[in-house]
Specification:
Chain lengths: ~350, ~475
């Protein structure tokens, strides 16, 4: 399989124009140039992470190439919705970490039905209407700097984090980071799920406000800044990215909060009227097959952190603490205009514009 | 088509019962399906409408007003309630006092003539699928916001349909189970019903061919009908066989003497040389053969009567026709030209249920007796009096002596009916015919008129047919 970087569309564009410009961040083509069938795959996952999985898929196919477009979740949602209303989907497969957005797309009849022996095995919480499937398992974790945060102060749970932030003269003032939920669909989803999950989130929000915590964009930036010591602790970072970074740079530590850990399953759907529904179904079946699961595990998209025997540094969790974000229409609440406004209004009080 | 009906007629009873039950089940299945589906739809609608209403109320109660603006955080619980229909899409729309959409789907069309108070539910299209919606309103009377906020919540109808189908399917399962039970029961009952028949058939097959004794009647009441019919049939058969047996032995007995006499005369004739005596012998042979012929006639007619008495079909017979038929044969004008014969027939039919041929034989015998032994004039006639019909032969003579009548009567009853000769046999035949149709033979001497022999039969009183 030839893997070729076709184009690199200005990575910086997305930094300047959140959600307005509808343009992909990166495009890459997999498989033989001359293949008769082309599968257009749109995803929010970094190409570098998901590429090996696509390669593994193409090894099982012939006469197929994959155009992989990498998008921001809000842009991808907007584009998919627009194409759905116009009835002209360009993509054959859409995978997004903004699962609430995906649920909304399915709710608006934008997805094609698909069922096979393998999809029937997907647990009910990770499958909706045979149109949307959760294909990954990624925990939302706390990342800390191993050099600057003493072993005794490593927060094992949200209560520990609250305790760290409580003293007036805490050294963590201004050095705790989390997603900017107005810009990141995933950050908003995690925050929203937190708010549903426990009252701890209110207290946490209050502590963040008091200690002037930082809300910023993008997993990669946050994790790098923790490693470099600019931030000491990052809250609600996607575990797959954190672990991927940790493999190169062991200055960071990863904690799965023991009170509860949110688990995200990126959602996959086949847009209604997609031109290569057959190939899209084959791709889905591959991801659900043992071979695909293995590839996803290697890409850390099915996180080893969740499997107790491999639990990094003994951070094992009882399975009851895992809270998968299920694919249910209840997630649409997160997207409701008024609800979002109310939620963001409260958020802005916590993180006033710098 | 015709052969199909013929097949239907000879179809086994088990198959008939099975067909009946199957027909009942199919018909019941269709009816139960329709009823269960209607019920299921209704039940599903009620159940899921409550979910909708619950969710809508949940949402509307979470609306508050802050500084003149409605503020809302959609309660996740409302959506979780709706997600109890796991595969249904959810639509909602919240409208402010001015009718503008505050949040939710603009696409949801609210029917034009919609009164949110009385008619809260409606059905509408939601992204290409039928969905059912509920509309709930709440009045706000704040200083800054005065008006009605309406919440419309709905979902597609997959779960409702599934529930209706599910209820229908379960009803059909119950029907199928009870149908199977019915079929099993029906088979058992049919088997039980026909068990006695098999017993009877087995008993009959095992019987000696000459055994005509009645079958045991210790069978269920319903099958006893058959046993009774069978037994009466066998009794008739037995009677006929007995008659035949008697007839044959009687005939042999009766014929032996005259035939022996004839042979003796014939022998004499061969040995005789005197022509005058030869002539006398011939004369005697002629008279004997004519007697023998008459005897044979009578015996054959008796055989006929005995045979028909049990086996011929009863039909409505006008006794006047019987008289006319016998009269019209006109044998008497040839054999007894000196005797005057008259008829006495009424104007109205004299009808009984009997066999015309038997009656004719009986009348012929009585008529023959009157011609031979009675005195002219001879009259034939019928009478219909209250409750009885009679057909009679009358002559001007005195009839047989009192003693002869007495002995005749006893011999009728003794069963040795056919060991008679001459008039006796004729009377015996008439007696047999009378009794086989429920009547009797009356012999009476009418003062100043003569002797009358009549067959008297009871008549069912029949208003329209009564005659004077």
């Amino acid at each position: 399989m030839i893997r070729r970087l076709v184009s690199l569309v200005s990575l910086t564009l997305s930094m300047f124009s959140f959600g307005f410009a509808q343009a992909q961040e990166l495009v890459e083509e997999f498989g033989p140039q001359t293949a008769p069938t082309t599968l257009v795959l749109r995803s929010t996952t970094d190409i570098s992470v998901f590429g090996p999985v696509v390669d593994a898929f193409l090894r099982t196919q012939s006469g197929l190439k994959v155009i992989y477009e990498q998008w921001g979740s809000n842009d991808l949602h907007g584009l998919s919705r627009k194409e759905c209303r116009e009835g002209s989907p360009e993509a054959d497969v859409v995978i997004s970490s903004g699962v609430h957005q995906m649920v909304q797309l399915v709710n608006e009849a934008c997805a094609e039905k698909y069922s096979s022996r393998l999809t029937a095995l997907v647990p009910g919480a990770l499958r909706w209407r045979d149109q949307l499937w959760g294909i990954t398992r990624e925990p939302a974790v706390v990342v800390y700097n191993r050099e600057l945060v003493p072993e005794s102060e490593v927060p094992k749970s949200r209560f520990d984090l609250l305790d760290l932030l409580r003293p007036t003269e805490t050294p963590y003032t201004g050095r705790v980071a989390t997603y900017d939920i107005e810009r990141s669909g995933l950050g908003y989803l995690f925050a929203f799920a937190d708010a549903q999950e426990a009252s701890t989130f209110g207290a946490l929000q209050e502590s963040f406000a008091r200690t002037r915590a930082v809300s910023t964009c993008c997993s990669a930036d946050i994790i790098r800044n923790v490693a470099e010591g600019q931030y000491l602790i990052a809250y609600n970072v996607l575990g797959s990215y954190a672990q991927g970074y940790q493999e190169q740079d062991d200055r960071i530590g990863i904690v799965l909060p023991s009170d509860y850990t949110l688990v995200l399953s990126r959602a996959l759907m086949i847009p209604k009227g997609s031109k290569n529904g057959g190939a899209a179904g084959a791709f889905l079946d591959f991801l659900l097959s043992p071979l695909g699961q293995h590839a996803l595990r290697r890409a850390l998209l099915i996180s080893p952190l969740l499997e107790s025997e491999e639990g990094a540094e003994g951070e094992t969790l009882s399975s009851t603490a895992l809270r998968p974000i299920g694919l249910s229409p209840a997630l649409m609440v997160a997207l409701d205009q008024l609800t979002r406004e109310t939620f963001l209004k409260r958020w802005r009080i916590t993180f006033p514009d710098p | 088509m015709a052969s199909f009906f013929r097949q239907l007629e000879t179809m086994s009873l088990t198959a008939r019962v099975a067909m009946g039950v199957a027909f009942l089940l199919v018909l019941g299945g269709v009816m139960v399906s329709i009823a269960a589906f209607a019920y299921g739809k209704e039940a599903a609608r009620t159940a899921y409408d409550r979910l909708l209403l619950g969710a809508a109320n949940d949402i509307i109660s979470s609306i508050s007003v802050q500084s003149g603006e409605p503020v809302l955080e959609l309660p996740v619980s409302a959506f979780e309630l709706l997600a109890l229909a796991p595969d249904d899409r959810i639509g909602y729309r919240i409208m402010g006092p001015d009718g503008a959409t505050l949040t939710g789907y603009d696409e949801i069309q609210i029917p034009d003539r919609f009164d949110a108070d009385s008619n809260r539910y409606f059905e509408s299209d939601f992204f290409g699928e039928t969905a059912r919606f509920v509309a709930v309103s709440r009045r706000f009377a704040e200083r800054t916001l005065n008006g009605t906020i309406t919440v419309v919540v709905g979902q597609t109808v997959n779960a409702r349909d599934m529930m209706a189908y599910d209820i229908t399917r379960k009803a059909l399962y119950v029907l199928a189970a009870s149908g199977l039970a019915m079929l099993g029961l029906a088979t058992l009952v049919v088997r039980a019903v026909f068990k006695p028949l098999e017993t009877i058939a087995g008993g009959l097959a095992a019987r000696d061919p000459h055994d005509l004794t009645p079958l045991g009647t210790d069978v269920p009441r319903e099958t006893a009908v058959m046993i009774t019919a069978l037994n009466s049939f066998m009794a008739r058969l037995d009677r006929q066989m007995n008659s035949m047996r008697h007839l044959i032995s009687d005939t042999a007995h009766q014929l032996r003497t005259p035939v022996a006499a004839l042979r003796a005369q014939a022998d004499l004739f061969g040995d005789e040389v005197d022509p005058a005596r030869k002539d006398r012998i011939v004369e005697r042979i002629q008279s004997r053969t004519s007697n023998l012929g008459r005897l044979l006639d009578q015996m054959l007619s008796q055989a006929l009567v005995i045979h028909r008495g049990d086996s011929a079909r009863r039909e409505l017979v006008d006794l006047r026709d019987v008289v006319l038929d016998v009269f019209d044969e006109e044998n008497h004008t040839v054999l007894f030209p000196d005797v005057t014969v008259g008829l006495d027939l009424g104007d109205y039919p004299v009808e009984i249920m009997a066999d015309a041929t038997s009656l004719q034989e009986a009348l012929k015998n009585l008529f023959g007796n009157a011609l031979k032994y009675g005195q002219s004039p001879v009259r034939l006639g019928t009478t219909l009096t209250e409750g009885r019909a009679s057909i009679w032969v009358e002559d001007a003579g005195d009839g047989p002596s009192e003693a002869a009548l007495q002995s005749l009567g006893s011999r009728f009853n003794s069963g040795a009916l056919s060991r008679q000769s001459g008039s006796g046999l004729g009377l015996a035949i008439a007696h047999a015919v009378a009794t086989s149709f429920g009547g009797r033979l009356d012999l009476e001497t009418l003062p100043g008129v003569g002797f009358r022999a009549s067959l008297v039969f009871p008549v069912k009183q029949n208003g329209g047919r009564k005659s004077t």
